[in-house]
From TrEMBL, chain A:
It is found in: Nucleus membrane; Nucleus, Nuclear pore complex. Pfam families: Ndc1_Nup (PF09531). The keyword Phosphoprotein does not apply. One of its GO terms (molecular function) is protein-macromolecule adaptor activity. This is Nucleoporin NDC1. Residues 433-447 have a biased composition (Low complexity). It comes from the Eukaryota.
UniProtKB/TrEMBL annotation, chain B:
One of its GO terms (biological process) is nucleocytoplasmic transport. Pfam families: Beta-prop_Aladin. It comes from Oncorhynchus mykiss (Rainbow trout). Signal peptide: none annotated. GO terms for cellular component: nuclear pore. SMART domains: WD40 (SM00320). Residues 101-444 form the Aladin seven-bladed propeller domain. This is Achalasia, adrenocortical insufficiency, alacrimia. The gene is LOC110532040. InterPro entries: Aladin, Beta-prop_Aladin, WD40/YVTN_repeat-like_dom_sf, WD40_rpt.
């Protein structure tokens, strides 16, 4: 009941924020449109005429109609932002996975709608610019057939450019994770943040419009006849043969046409980007949750309740952000955390908060250990791989023994599957953050292979609860698929054969007769692999992107960063503020969790494929801060350990 | 209120010299003169000029080589150059400091006295261990650690004209260095035996238009680093781990010269080259403006609890104080700001009688340093000769300043830079870099603030800088009135 109420209330909070951001973007549309009108009709030599024309256009009824259309588009974009946003980016580990994302039905709807909205905006632009762009048909007199309607190709080009830019916006959005909403380390007021980001957004939209225009012109140059003929046929327009068609070099290099195309594209992208920007700013604003409530009906809105919830994900993020901030900045709210419950005298708030933070951190540790295992055993002999698997099992046993009391509320994460560490950790990871299993599956995509499905099996309830079941697949797929996908899934197979034979007879027989069948399969596998490796396209599609798995592993690390900050600041503050000594009881667990995580993170950064420094890419609007989360996590972790030890100093001994 | 006359006359005494560094005689203004001239094509030279000095350099190059270019190009570039110069002269009449070259600007705004001919250009104690970093005038940085035999030397291609350096708090190894046109963050592994860490150990943080960097400050409890440049109106807040920055633009001031983060992490002092400074509040990053000073804010320091800010103004010989009181109940606002600054000490020139004759002390103030316990305040006075005046301070229950004494070096030397050691157990320890390249530690031994005792305070092994007759303790320079 709690969770249901929580979900409704949380969605309401987010919805209101989205609505506020949309309202602001509609308000901001007014100056943007005015600016566009001014710039698009700019004439250097007739300034007075120019101004008066612009003023009369802005006050005309038809301009108001197109403005209402634009408002509708902006509202739609805002709605799509709300519907498609994510706080945990989905990171494609190979080109094929990226392709799967692009061709996903959900993404298809997104692209289609944006394409249509692009056309609508372009129509408004054409209408605003006026002149030769105003309408699709214009009366003309062909030779000896009297007046008829001819196609106005300028208008068509503008509309097509709008459609192209709309589609490419959607496409670039999925490639650069534009729907990812990142949180900032520094808190600033919304107005100041918007003011700081506005020049960047203007620049990004201008540059992006330029690139889109280049691609569009190339496309139109080669393929322009097709839409033209189609439009002519559908609308029964004829082509004016006295005017050159636009898909020639000379007519495409018309400076005025290029300027108008570019300024329209910039306008389109600018309005959309502003909507995205405002949505991000509004939705990531700090929400101050009450630490404890005086009334029981508000109990689901308190920090300890919200922080343990999972739906919607962003609410958990906001709660953890609030925890990190309150632990740093507000002594009065810290006192509430350290307080005891009134009848009973139990530190419920502190217990709930610390338990949640610690379980988050130990989950990450397990995930890292599992990943390290799969990567480290890759390429070694089989006998070694089982050994290392065993070792890591014991190490994660230690983790879970240490964390035993922390994990009682989440039985699914506690399942011990002795054979496979990987499976268990992906159970935990899969249930908690469905998008961040190290391989970022796209389950609905037509390209995801059965092996991938099996890896993400924990998402299906049957796979999660019975480890033996999850690995029932045809042995051929099992052996061939992972090799193609990535090296890291390979050792999964070597290291953890199905512990129980299960109902499927074929794999168990294969296990029982190692001599002939296995060598035969091995040979076939190598043959297939060699065959496929020679095909460039396949290798290109299936090759792992560098660093992608590492990024995917840390995709949701923002919560871990906040958990670390919150815990360490609270512990440091408890040295002087905790009157009842409630933090002391959990201090050993906290320290051991932090150190285990430190060990795991250090090991991860020593892997060959992880770079030790954040790289820089300057993609326009896509937020790439998820790529550097692991570095932020590493430094936060170090700082957290130092903060606790520096505060307690000699008392720790 | 007045003045230095209350101070005991300075005595010369032994300091424990830690290390002595030879001042470098090599003055390098530009490496260009070291190479022979040779003929390059105009294109190559223009590309080089564009890279080195931007548009104006390119235009200058074209205008100077009028023999090789078409006449119209030479004439038009001279015209554009003249126009540029006219505009920039207009701009720099608003902000005179923009006419300075980068080196001069660093020298002008650095906390080091006579930065350009000083052997030691920067000094930083590690906040948690006995380890210090020293920036030398040959643009290298040495790290001294008494527990380790190796003395790592940090050199980097971009590490030129180091203006300031600071160790990251809550970290063993990270050192931020303010360089000519970037920030470097070195990660020097304390367990490493290498004496020359490779430049791969350094993160380079640069931002267009942010050069020269004259001041850096780490947040005392977080991963943030702020940096300032007199040419850049924005204060940059870096998230060092991910190498991203957020510029905080505000109108007015024309740049940021000096930064100081309060020890409790709640506020940042940002001085500008004009008569204005700002105090940023670090929760929501809003700022308070403090305009209408007599000159620019030269230096400032925070009390350990972050409630008091002492600052000095160029051209004046007094120390001002601002008091901030925190209002925990008002979260998102800059709360408890003071209304006006009060003068707490006057260090104008006075004559003191010593057995050797009268000496002049006092003058303009170069920098301030407050020891981490909040009991000693060192004031670096620029006068002739420059010296360091030390005050005893008391923060609670009321703010008090008492005269303590002077720190002087060997004859003919003057202090250039000073910093308190944050890890000194027996009181306070001031580290001073002298003009002859020596670095000395000056320990002050005292009991804690509760019972101030005249004399040595139970730790007699350290030579004191000056005698302290008991009667001076009673003469309070400044006492806050509690109403």
């Amino acid at each position: 009941m709690f969770s249901l109420k929580n979900t409704q209330w949380g969605s309401l909070v987010i919805c209101w924020r989205a609505v506020a951001s949309m309202a602001w973007s509609v308000l901001l549309l007014l100056p943007t449109t005015a600016l566009f009108v001014l710039l698009s009709r700019f004439s250097l030599f007739h300034p007075i005429l120019w101004m008066s024309e612009c003023l009369s256009l802005l006050t005309s009824a038809s301009a108001i109609f197109s403005f209402i259309l634009l408002c509708g588009v902006v509202l739609m974009v805002g709605f799509f932002n709300l519907e498609y946003y994510t706080v945990v980016p989905s990171i494609a580990c190979s080109k094929i996975a990226l392709l799967g994302q692009v061709l996903h039905p959900r993404q298809f709807v997104h692209s289609l709608v944006h394409c249509i909205m692009g056309v609508v905006v372009a129509w408004c632009c054409a209408f605003t610019i006026g002149g030769r762009y105003r309408s699709l048909g214009h009366p003309c007199t062909q030779d000896e057939s009297g007046p008829e309607m001819c196609l106005n190709e300028y208008h068509l080009v503008l509309l097509l450019a709008g459609a192209f830019i709309g589609y490419s916006h959607s496409l670039v959005g999925v490639v650069y994770n534009m729907n990812y909403v990142s949180f900032h380390t520094m808190q600033q007021y919304k107005y100041l943040r918007f003011k700081g980001a506005l020049p960047l957004v203007v620049k990004a939209s201008a540059v992006q419009a330029l690139y889109c225009l280049r691609s569009f012109l190339l496309l139109y140059f080669f393929m322009g006849y097709a839409p033209r003929a189609w439009i002519c046929k559908t609308l029964d327009l004829s082509i004016n043969s006295s005017i050159h068609s636009l898909d020639s070099v000379s007519s495409l290099l018309d400076l005025s046409l290029l300027y108008h195309l570019w300024i329209s594209g910039t306008f389109l992208l600018l309005t959309w980007y502003i909507t995205v920007l405002l949505f991000r700013i509004f939705v990531t604003e700090v929400y101050s949750f009450p630490v404890q409530s005086t009334f029981t009906e508000d109990a689901h809105q308190c920090l300890p309740k919200v922080i343990t919830g999972t739906q919607p994900m962003i609410l958990k993020f906001l709660a953890l952000q609030d925890l990190a901030l309150l632990s740093q900045h507000s002594p009065s709210r810290r006192l509430e955390v350290f307080s005891l419950s009134q009848p009973g005298g139990h530190p419920h708030i502190w217990t709930a908060l610390s338990k949640e933070c610690l379980s988050l951190l130990s989950d990450l540790t397990e995930r890292l250990v599992a990943h390290h295992d799969t990567v480290a055993t890759n390429g070694r002999a089989k006998s070694q791989s089982t050994g290392s698997n065993k070792r890591s099992t014991t190490s994660s046993e230690v983790t879970s023994v240490g964390m035993e009391d922390m994990k009682t509320p989440r039985p699914s994460a506690l399942i011990r599957t002795p054979g496979s560490v990987f499976l268990r950790s992906s159970v935990g990871a899969g249930l908690r953050t469905p998008l961040t299993t190290p391989f970022t599956p796209d389950l609905d995509s037509p390209f995801s292979s059965p092996a991938l499905r099996r890896l993400t099996g924990p998402l299906e309830p049957q796979g999660a609860l019975s480890p033996g079941f999850s690995s029932i697949q045809s042995p051929h797929v099992m052996r061939r698929g992972p090799k193609l996908w990535s090296a890291s899934t390979d050792s999964q197979l070597n290291g953890s054969p199905p512990p129980s034979p299960g109902p499927a007879p074929s794999p168990s027989q294969a296990q029982l007769k190692p001599s002939f069948l296995v060598t035969f399969l091995q040979n076939r596998k190598d043959q297939v692999k060699n065959f496929l490796a020679k095909r460039m396209l396949i290798m290109y599609l299936f090759n792992k992107l560098p660093e992608a798995s590492s990024q995917a592993l840390f995709a949701d690390s923002q919560v871990h960063i906040w958990a670390l900050q919150g815990l360490s600041h609270l512990v440091a503050a408890s040295f002087s503020e905790d009157q009842y000594g409630i933090v002391q009881t959990t201090l050993p667990t906290i320290l051991s969790t932090l150190l285990l995580l430190q060990e795991a993170v250090d090991r991860h950064f020593k892997l060959p494929h992880t770079s030790s420094k954040p790289g820089h890419c300057s993609c326009s609007m896509g937020d790439d801060s998820y790529k550097t989360l692991r570095f932020a996590l590493r430094s936060t972790l170090k700082t957290a350990v130092y903060r606790i030890t520096a505060t307690f100093g000699g008392h720790l001994q | 209120m007045c003045s230095l006359a209350l101070f005991p006359p300075p005595l010369y005494s032994m300091n424990n010299v830690v290390c002595s560094l030879k001042p470098h005689s090599r003055q390098e203004s530009s490496s260009k003169s070291a190479f022979r001239d040779h003929c390059e094509t105009l294109y190559t030279r223009s590309a080089g000029a564009w890279r080195d000095a931007g548009l104006s350099g390119l235009l200058n190059e074209i205008a100077n080589s009028s023999a090789e270019v078409p006449k119209w190009l030479g004439v038009s570039s001279s015209c554009v150059l003249a126009l540029l110069r006219w505009v920039s002269s207009f701009h720099s009449s608003l902000f005179p400091h923009l006419t300075l070259s980068s080196e001069e600007m660093t020298a002008e705004f650095s906390q080091v006295l006579d930065w350009s001919d000083c052997a030691v250009r920067g000094f930083a104690w590690h906040p948690h261990t006995q380890k210090c970093a020293v920036a030398l005038s040959d643009d290298s940085i040495k790290i001294y650690n008494p527990k380790s035999a190796t003395t790592p030397t940090l050199k980097h291609r971009l590490q030129r004209s180091v203006a300031a350096l600071q160790w990251k708090p809550l970290c063993a190894s990270a050192l931020a260095v303010a360089c000519h046109n970037c920030l470097l963050v070195w990660h020097v592994d304390p367990t490493s035996l290498s004496t020359r860490p490779s430049s791969g150990c350094a993160q380079v943080l640069s931002h267009p238009g942010h050069s020269p960097v004259t001041s850096v400050a780490w947040s005392p409890n977080g991963p943030l680093l702020v940096s300032a440049s007199p040419r850049d109106t924005a204060l940059l807040v870096w998230d060092v781990a991910v190498e991203s920055c957020v510029p905080l633009h505000r109108v007015g001031g024309g740049g940021v010269t000096y930064l100081s983060w309060s020890p409790d992490g709640s506020r940042v002092l940002a001085a500008t080259p004009s008569s204005l400074f700002r105090v940023w509040e670090t929760r929501m990053w809003t700022c308070e403006r403090w305009p209408s000073l007599k000159g620019r804010c030269q230096s400032g320091c925070w009390s350990p609890d972050g409630s008091r800010l002492l600052f000095t103004v160029q051209g004046e010989t007094v120390i001002y104080a601002l008091t901030f009181t925190d209002n925990p109940g008002v979260p998102l606002m800059m709360s408890g700001g003071p209304k006006a600054a009060t003068v707490v000490a006057d260090l104008s020139e006075t004559t003191l009688n010593t057995p050797d004759g009268d000496i002049m002390v006092g003058g303009e103030i170069q920098s301030l340093a407050w020891d981490p316990r909040g009991e000693r305040l060192a004031v670096h006075v620029k006068g002739r000769p420059a010296m360091i005046a030390v005050f005893k301070t008391q923060i609670s229950p009321a703010f008090k300043l008492l005269p303590c004494g002077f720190v002087q070096g060997e004859a003919g030397t003057e202090p250039r830079l000073m910093q308190f050691n944050p890890n000194y157990q027996h009181g306070a320890q001031l580290t001073v870099c002298w003009s002859n390249g020596k670095i000395t530690h000056v320990p002050f031994c005292f009991m804690s603030a509760g019972n101030p005792q005249p004399g040595l305070g139970g730790s007699p092994s350290f030579p004191l800088t000056q005698g302290r007759p008991a009667d001076y303790n009673n003469q309070t320079l400044y006492t806050e009135l509690i109403s």
